[in-house]
Amino acid sequence: MTHQEHLLPLLVVEDDAAIRELLEEELNDAGYDTLGVPSAEEAIALLSHTSVAMMITDVRLPGMTGIQLLQQLRQSGSELGIIVITAFGTIDQAVEALKLGADDFLTKPLDLDAIREAVFRVLERQRLSLTQDDTELSHFHGIAGKSNVMQSLFHDASRLAKSDAPILILGESGTGKELLARAIHKESPRHDAPFVPVNCASIPADLMESEFFGHVKGAFTGANEARKGLFHSAQGGSLFLDEIGEMPINLQAKLLRALQEKTVRAVGSEREEPVDVRIIAATHRNLEKEIEQENFRSDLFYRLETFSLRIPPLRERGSDIELLVFTLIDKLAEAQGKQIEQIEPEALNSLLNYTYPGNVRELENAIMRAVTLSEEGLLQHQDLPERLREQSNQDSSSEITPTLSGEVLPSTSQVPAPAPTRWPSLEEVEKRYIRKVLEATGGNKRRTAEVLGIARRTLYRRLEDDSEQT
């Protein structure tokens, strides 16, 4: 087994000091950090405030046994990798341990090679499991994001999708609020019913009530026939109210009533009709300030805000920019029947370093322009919008480039641009970027993970995969 560093230590629970020290020494030599305690009670106390990669515990311990320790951890929902050490001739205890959720067992006298192999197997199973989880979270119904903030958003959105409560999506313009609303609808039990989007800012105020609730024949001048509204169009599904902050305050009262009573009244009608619609609203405005200025009803806000989701701006999403750049190039090139095989390094630097005040929408528009203008499979710097090129030129006059976390990294613009290369895979670009950040932080993996916006365990897996291939 190759010598590898692990970001989280291994916990050894063994009351025999000589055996505990032997295990720790062997694991240290194999490249692992270790913590050692003599009892199950001390192990539980340590685990209450310290994260570990996995645990090795003897069955026979003073006080609580290793089996009882295993049972208590599993009952608490812990998925920590656990290897149980049992004396020779008590295999029945090993079988019991496996039934209770142990990952492996070792018998005394201990074989040091077997210890290393067992630890590797358990950690590898965990790595593969976490890799699968990362894959599932990196895309949520078409929304790409592997940063911690986006994975947290995907998790919360998936949970809220299962309920039927109204949802309020907050975020700057261009962050993808409608995409998230569609994703929530697809994840919900209503996914087979209609998803009806409407931009409240695009409907004239005097027509909005009719658009939402419908009207009867003769309700107003020009109402030559009865018409159903958006609530009826979304029956059984989801009605997405984009820019709800633009809705006139008189209509907000009627929307609140529809939410509470689950009925609507068409303009000109005296009859309430039942509707089964889930409301997903979105805004880039600060609704609390709108309430202070009496532009938004506080009761409607509190009704919606109970289950709110905030989409972070692109500048807060760390290494997601790389993922989005390559995802969008492939998507937009395919839409135009093109195949982008090469990219100028200067173009890639500009795309990765721009601040994107217009968020994902601005990034997508920039790439669409570059793909449209590209020739012979080459995406060139000159094909990017002028504002991206200008910022790149300004950055080139500096010797350092600050990251969002405050870490200072060497400016990529100081490196002479080589000739265009073959189109790199996302995995290759990710590895190069991780190595660059790791070098800039002096090999500090904790700071590297913070700069990249990923979990330390995720960083370890990336480094482990890289070392296996080199």
From TrEMBL:
Q: Which Pfam families match?
A: AAA_lid_14 (PF25601), HTH_8 (PF02954), Response_reg (PF00072), Sigma54_activat (PF00158)
Biological process, per Gene Ontology:
phosphorelay signal transduction system; regulation of DNA-templated transcription
Q: Where is this region: Disordered?
A: 388-423
Enumerate the UniProt keywords alphabetically. ATP-binding, DNA-binding, Nucleotide-binding, Phosphoprotein, Transcription, Transcription regulation
Q: Which residues carry this modification: 4-aspartylphosphate?
A: 58
What are the Response regulatory domain coordinates in residue numbering? 9-123
Q: Biased composition, Polar residues: where in the chain? A: 393-415
Molecular function GO terms recorded:
ATP binding; sequence-specific DNA binding
Q: Where is the Sigma-54 factor interaction domain?
A: 143-372
Question: What InterPro entries does UniProt report for this protein, alphabetically?
Answer: AAA+_ATPase, AAA_lid_NorR, CheY-like_superfamily, Homeodomain-like_sf, HTH_Fis, P-loop_NTPase, Sig_transdc_resp-reg_receiver, Sigma_54_int
Name used for this protein in its record:
Sigma-54-dependent Fis family transcriptional regulator
Q: Which organism is it from?
A: Vreelandella nigrificans
